[in-house]
Every structure is written in C-alpha cells, then in structure tokens.
Design a protein that fits this description.
Radius of gyration: 21 Å
Low-confidence stretches: 1-10
Helix content: over 70%
Number of helices: 13
Number of strands: 0
Mean pLDDT: 90
Distance between the termini: 14 Å
Largest sheet: none
Order of helices and strands: HHHHHHHHHHHHH
Shape: globular
Length: 361
Amino acid sequence: MPKTLPLPEARKLLGLEGLRFLATLAVLLWHYQHFALVAEPAVKLTRSELPFYRVLFPFYEAGEYGVWFFWCISGFIFFWKYRTIIADRTVDGRSFFVNRLSRLYPLHIATLLLVAVLQPVYFAQHGVYFVYPNNDLPHFLAQLFMASDWLPPRSESFNGPIWSVSVEIMDYATFFMALRFVTASPLFNLVVILASITIGTQVGTSLAFFYAGGLAAMARQAVVDSGHRRTLEATAAFAAIAVPAAIWLAGIELAPAAGPLLLIYTPILLFCCSGQLTLPRRVQALLEMAGNMTYSCYLLHFPIQLAIALACVAMQRPIPYGDHLFWVAFVLPTLVASHLTYRWFEAPAQRLIRRTLRRKK
C-alpha cells in the first residue's frame, strides 16, 4: 500500500495567479447585472449604461466565459503539480480528495447556509426569489453534496455560482482515476477533449477545458529544459497576441465561435503566462494574494448582492446599480471581504480539516 503523503505545495505560478484573479473579476462583473433583477424574473438590461462600461465592457459582455478560464487554469495546475505523483502512487486517493474537499467545502457550506437563510426573507417580501429560483429541499441537498449540476439542466439554486465548482468535482474524479488506472500520456488528454466536446453538456465542456489546460502544463514542463525553449515561448507569445488581433481586425463575432476559439486559445495563453517570473517582493505578494482570494470572491459575491437587495428593500429604495459610487461600494468591499475570508476562515478551516483527518489516518 502506498505511503500516505500530503500533496505538494509547489511554487506559485504568478502569471496564472494573475489570470485567476482576472477570471474572477470577469465573473463578478458579469453577475453585476443581478442587481437589475429585483422582484422580476426578467429585465431588459442595457449593459452600456452600467458603470465604467467603456473600460469594463469586455467583462460586462463576455464575463461568463471566465468560468471556462477557471476550468482550464485548474487543469493546468492539477497536471503541473499532481500528474507524476498520482501516476507513480506517491499520493493515494484519500490524501488527494481530502486536500481538495478541505479547500472547497468550508466556505461552500458557510455561503450555502447564509443564502438559505436570506432567500426566504427576500421571497417573503417579493413573492419570488432573488435571481436563482429553485430554493427547495432537494436542491439544497444536491448543493450540500456539491452534486447540484452533475446532470442537466442547470440547477439555478441557492448560491448559484457554485454550479461550476460542482461540475469541476467531476473533473477531479476523472483526473485521478485516469492517472492512477489508465495513462498519463498527452494523447489521452486529446481523446478526453474530443470525447467531451461530443457530450454537449456543462460537464463535457468542463472536462474539455480542464484537459486542455493539462496539455498546456505538459507542454510547459516539456520545454523547461529544452534547448529551443526561447523559440517556443516566442512562438506561443506571438500566437497569444495574433489570435485576438486577427479576430478583432476581421470583425468576427465571438459568441457563435466562443467554444472552439477559447478551447484553442486559453491553453496557449496559460503556456505563455506560466513561465518563471522575477518580480519585486511586493508585486509577488499582491499576485499571490489576488490568486488566493479568487474562491472566496466567487462564492461571496452573490450572498453580498442578496444582502444589499434586502437592505435596499428595508430602506424602501431601488438598487442604484447604474451609479458609479454604488459600483465602487459593491466591488471594493467584496474584494476586501474575499481577502479577509481567505485569511481568517478558508485557510484556517482547511488546515484544521487536514490535520484532523490525517491524525485519524
């Protein structure tokens, strides 16, 4: 039986930490439109009237694709850190999944319970739930076990953004089982990507981007000691710049071709951003902090929106979502709360769970 070891704490890939934060910001600003959904199931929102639109329009218009970036970044990090040690059985399944779930579960449970308390209050005032309509016991139990979106359609329940994490749990299971019992070959990644595309569900999309990120990690590991490293990095950097430039010059609309374009482009971008960076200590600390707070921001922003909606009702005022000061008063405190939550809740809870379960082992 293999020796049980904690998963490694590899060096931070600072470029990817920055991309993780940008993907989080994209989702946060994409969901800013939730403020227009007060007491109405559908509202004709004019996004061009949202605060700072001229600067932030990519996030307002295409922020939903930040979830795909998350899946691809996760695939890169998992293959970068764990591919070899899972395949050679240095780390067993118990250690792997304890480390994963201790990272995800504490904040998930806390925010799920918070939304479960606040949504009935909102329903009592409006007769409808805020944004996500399916807040009953079966959906609660599904979210409790992070199984809410394993099957279509989307659950649209409680702390809605957790849906993408629920789907990603399937990626973790596939990743571990494949490395342990099938193969660690890059060719297998290609097979999974092609098979996942044909599924046509969110689970399939998640697997495709996760394994595409894995290919980028394998490519980065392959060129670390290569004599052609600089040439390959320069070629990838040229492609990372040329692809969006060509799309913009050709006037191609992103939405109809977003899936295949991002599935090809995102791994190239991750490859470019995963090189070793030498930065001042303060900049490095800021990037690490930004990367650490991404999960907190992802799960906190909807409960904060719900609390703001309830506060505006209590004050008998409409939500001024078109106001620039309101935007600042929502975004900045959310980011601060995310940092504090990671430091004082997420990280301590994670350490406590891991110490407890390892002691039992």
